[in-house]
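Example 3.2
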Amino acid sequence: MDFESPSPTDICTKPDFLDLSQDLMNGLCKLSTEQVGSLMGLSSKLAKLNHERFKAWTKNHEKNTSKQAVLAFKGDVYEGLKAWDFKQKDFQFAQANLRILSGLYGVLKPLDLIQPYRLEMGTVYPNPAGKDLYAFWGDRLANSIREEMKQLNYQTIVNLASLEYSKAAKLSKVGATVISPVFKDEKNGNFKIISFYAKRARGLMANFIISNQIKNEKDLEEFSVEGYAYSPKQSTSQEPVFLRTEQSRIAA
């Protein structure tokens, strides 16, 4: 997470599920450093850091202690998304069309303020609703996404989340067409999903949709960033496949 770099926009919003985030934090902040490390499989250094984050977290999210989600998250997907380069029109389009899934916050709009934390959706954290976070969030995420899509009169979701997170969203219950792009890189003459590259490619695709304000799923086929190219032969209507050769990867 990056809470040091300045934000290129002052616009911020409030997460929808802060009350539920507080419910989770009520238990997490009581864990010892050792328990945090055991729960998440962390080194002692990272366990201490996240124990301190849990203790410092408050429901009151202000600009001096928080940051917009799309700018706070780091990692391969967000390196591809490059939200720090967004223009005002990009932030506006993203705020209306992009939703970020979170183990702590449930569903986030890009400009929702968040505080530093670590809580992967797949964490097996017992809570009053069940054995893990999937039980905790239940159908809430699907219901939230379905209601927003109804308000916007949208019928299609482009799923760029990992399996760990899309599982929590229960997209099959949203009542929409779900398109899940697949990104494959060449290795030793064969095309396969390579986790590191696929994560970044999902961010690149999100950036492509936002910067071009794409509303038609057919236009996704035009994605050709950093050497990827649409493969009609390997694609289906709900799983468009994008391939990148080793040569293209080196050039990119």
